[in-house]
Amino acid sequence: MSIAEGLAPVFGDFPRVLVLGSFPGPKSLGTGQYYGNPRNQFWKIIACLLGIPESLPYDQRTKELRCAGIALWDVIQSCERDGAMDNRIRNARVNDIAAVLEQYPSIQMIGINGGTGGKYFFGAWPGGFPGVPAVVLPSTSPANARMTLEEKVGAWHCITEGVQTLQSSPQSTNDDR
After folding, report:
1. Which among 81, 99, 120, 156 could disulfide-bond with 75, CB atoms 3.0 to 4.6 Å apart, if both were Cys?
2. Got the DSSP string for 89-145?
């Protein structure tokens, strides 16, 4: 089994919310797109919360996310994994989240997509980061079938609080719009 590298981060000028997955699955790595598995509910949840249609091309969806003040990345930078299941992740190396928070002081919240991401995040930073709450959200993976889409949307609603703050802020004008 070889070491797989994750995807490049998706950041706009003034992100307010950083959404961290654990590590992209094979379909996402193959397409070079976050949440590239059509059965993953991430883009459905974003459509419900922010009105960004999941039918838009990927580059347009990520542009809309950046404009809304949401950044995408993963907790894990590289790892070995046989298949798509997070419980098969081995020899994980985490991304430098501290450096990102230093580079983007506009980030006011971290939303972690699922328990595995939370495990690696809080394993690397047990106390989190002062002044930047980190919340573990229900996984959008198709493997998380114990919650309905509506329940996941309800739980993920907390990320829109940071977005609303950005939209009323003078920093919200950027070239991504």
Report:
1. 120
2. EEEEEE--HHHHHHH-TT--EEEEESHHHHHHHHHHSTT-BTTB-EEEEPP-STT--
Question: Do 23 and 89 contact (CB within 8 A), yes or no?
Answer: yes
Give the containing element (helix H, strand E) for 78.
strand 76-81
pTM of the predicted model, to two decimals? 0.89
Q: Which of 26, 81, 47, 68 is nearest to 164 (CA)?
A: 68
Per the CB < 8 A criterion, the answer to whether 135 and 31 are in contact is no
> Is 70 buried (19+), middle (13-18) or exposed (0-12) by CB count in 10 A?
buried
Q: Which amino acid is at 16?
A: R
For the stretch 3-17, pLDDT in tens is 889 999 999 999 999
**Rounded Cα–Cα distance for residues 146 and 88 (Å):** 20
Domains annotated on the chain, with CATH: 4-172 (3.40.470.10)
Place of tokens 């983007």: 104
Which pLDDT band holds residue 133 (cuts at 50, 70, 90)? very high
User: Tens digits of per-residue pLDDT, 135-177?
Assistant: 999 999 888 889 999 999 999 999 987 566 444 444 433 344 3
Structure tokens that stand for 35 in this block:
């949440």
